Amino acid sequence: MNSHKLLNARRISIAAFSFSFAYVLSFLFEGQVLYSLLNLYGIDTSHYILAAMITHFIGLFTCGMMVRSQKHAKSVMLGAMGLCLAAAIPFFFAPSAFWMVGLAVSGYFSGCAVAAWGYFLGAFTSKNERIKSCAAVLIYSNLLMIAVNVVAMNQSPFIGLGLSMLCLLIGMAFIWILPTAIEDERSKILKNKAHAGIKNSLMLLCLFVFIITINSGLMYQVINPAFEHLTGLVSWYWAVPYIAALAIMRNLPMKAKRSRILYVGMAMIIGAFISFMLLGRNAVDYLIVDTLMLGACGVFDLFWWSILGEMLDYSDNPAQLFGIGLSANVLGILCGDVLGIAVTSMELPGAEVAVIALTVVCVTLVMLPPLNNRLVLLLKNHTYLTTYDQMSQLQQTDIIQHIKTLDPLTVREQEVLQWILSGKSNREIAGALFISENTVKTHTRNIFSKYDVGSRAELISALLKNQIGE
Question: Which of 140, 174, 294, 399 is buried most, with the most CB atoms less than 10 Å from its CB?
Fold first, then answer.
């Protein structure tokens, strides 16, 4: 696929996800359309919201078990969106058991559709551009959500529901015309090479995401209801700081150390809950609390969405990796929702809510350094490979000759090493050098021993970290 077609595919992919995700944000996932419908009929919102989020979590988490290719991912997204459309129809009528069934169906299949998009993010956006693609879909989907929210909260929840379904239809149209790409051999090598190392990094990232997003659940159940009397302001301003933070993060120079901004985000969360504790409930107070809280959410959301995007190069099932990563976000909000409902029912004062939030932030502060170190090791190895591949033959040879080993490399070991640094598998090296695969494995073990490393990742890092600019 040439660069022009790839750019068009990327744009179509972003449009498809933005419209379909706007439906999720405005209706299913703590959406104001759903809240407005439930409030219209005087129905307790908690059971419906929790049902939608639980099934959405299950859909995200299990999608990878069913989706194994881009073509299958496209079919799943179209089918899932169609079922979501059908499941939303009962909400145009009086409340019934079909409402709960519809939420369960929509929650599950929307989760599958979101996870399946991981295939297209990985296929149509190069690694160094994925932070921009992730920022784009989050910004566009939230802008669409704001438009739907304004109508649902200020005009009619039924018109809002219709608009959210229209977003879903437009998303389906873009998915329909989305091409499928053939995965190249280099991507397969990278994924097979790093498959074992990705699991621990993903688990640590998921734990971090789960814990930090507990505060988002508290926001939905404690902070937002306290300002629900400011309907007009809340309907359009709520996500504005979130979008602004995404835009700022998206446009930072590639060399900027975004990990430091995570600490700023944590300080903003602390500031939001302290402000909620100390301030009143008027419009100015809302602007302060919401700006701090949603700005922090934008910082963290783009952090883990973009990290998951980079990790796609290391997984043979992008839907599984992307879905599991995002399911940790949903699970954290779900637990925060349950905690918030309990806090509200006990009528705890703002000071105690702030203490809970600060405790969560303290735990994540402890987790951030080891998480950052692990991600840097994993993702920079991939950067090293790419950079090495772009060097001249003279530069590549110079790197190998100027790094000391415990014992000198033989001529054949130097040849094998160059192929390893080019990202080739043992089978490909054997074919290129006209030797057996077992011979390649023997040379590789000898190379590891002479450089005193235990894996290809350690070897690449040892050879290149002092030779390639950070």
Answer: 294
Q: The tokens of 130 are what?
A: 């994925």
Residue with tokens 């944000």: 25
Cβ atoms within 10 Å of 140's Cβ, excluding its own: 18
Asked if 210 and 328 count as a contact pair (C-beta separation under 8 A), the reply is: yes
What is the pTM assigned to this prediction? 0.78
Least confident of 27-31, 189-193, 239-243, 450-454: 189-193
Q: Residue 66: enclosing H or E segment and its boundaries? A: helix 45-66
Domain end among 386, 404, 421: 386
The gap from C-alpha 134 to its chain's centroid, in whole angstroms, comes to: 8
Asked if residues 164 and 22 have their Cβ atoms less than 8 Å apart, the reply is yes
Please give the tally of structural domains in the chain.
Answer: 2
Other C-beta atoms lying within 10 Å of the C-beta of residue 294: 24
Whether 181 and 39 share a structural domain: yes
Is 157 found in the same domain as 81?
yes
211 with 241, same domain: the answer is yes
CB 337 within 8 A of CB 217: yes
Task: Give a yes or no: residue 252 inside a domain.
Answer: yes
Give pLDDT tens digits for 372-403. Answer: 666 655 555 444 444 555 556 666 666 666 66
Element spanning 348, H or E: none
Please indicate, yes or no, whether residues 370 and 434 belong to a single structural domain of this protein.
no
Last residue of some domain: 328, 353, 386?
Answer: 386
469 within some domain: no
Q: Is residue 18 part of a domain?
A: yes
Which residue intervals of 312-348 are DSSP H helices? Answer: 318-346
Range of the domain at 329: 3-386
- To the nearest 10 degrees (0 to 180), the angle between helices 283-311 and 258-278 is 150
Cα–Cα dist 45/42, whole Å: 9
Q: Report the run of H or E that residue 447 belongs to, with start and end.
A: helix 437-451
C-alpha dihedral (451, 455, 457, 462), degrees to nearest 10: -10
- Token pair, residue 112, equals 């599958």
Which residues are within 8 A (CB) of 320 and not within 5 positions of it... i.e. 6 or more apart? Answer: 63, 64, 65, 67, 115
* 297 and 197 share one domain: yes
